[in-house]
Amino acid sequence: MIRVVLPAHLKGLAHVTGEVRVEVPDLGTDGAVTQRLVLDALEARYPMLLGTIRDRHSGERRAFVRFYACEEDLSNESPDTALPHRVINGEEPFIILGAMAGG
């Protein structure tokens, strides 16, 4: 199970509190758990989140959404890059954060 922390507005949309846990049933071609697989599992479990974290058509991360794990910004990593082992083992969460902009 992968632990996922959602920003407050997405928790409200998904009707959850705290972090959520998703199972990633299909591993990537090299057996790795990736951002793409975690987001696929998250959207399958919470279909109301479709299109809020990444574009429905392109699959690209939304501009004001960031991904973190193990104190590292993974936002600009390939969606098919393996997540850190501490996330895969459930020791650390995969964090989805709503970025702020403006002045």
User: Main beta sheet: strand number and arrangement?
Assistant: 5 strands, mixed
- CATH topology-level fold name: Ubiquitin-like (UB roll)
Number of discrete helical segments: 3
Q: If you average the pLDDT, what whole number results?
A: 91
Label the overall shape.
Answer: globular
* Top-tier CATH class: Alpha Beta
> What is the first-to-last residue Cα distance?
39 Å
H-E order = EHEHEEHE
Strand order of the largest sheet: 2-1-5-3-4
Which range does the strand content fall in?
15-25%
- Count of distinct strands: 5
Stretches where pLDDT is under 50 for at least 5 consecutive residues are none
Structural class: alpha+beta
What is the domain total for the residues? 1
The second-level CATH architecture is Roll
Calculate Rg over CA atoms. Answer: 13 Å
* Proportion of helical residues: 10-25%
Overview of the structural elements:
The protein is of the alpha+beta class and 103 residues long. The chain is globular, with a radius of gyration of 13 Å. It contains 3 helices and 5 strands. The longest helix is centred in the middle third of the chain and has 11 residues. It has a single domain, classed as Ubiquitin-like (UB roll), CATH 3.10.20.
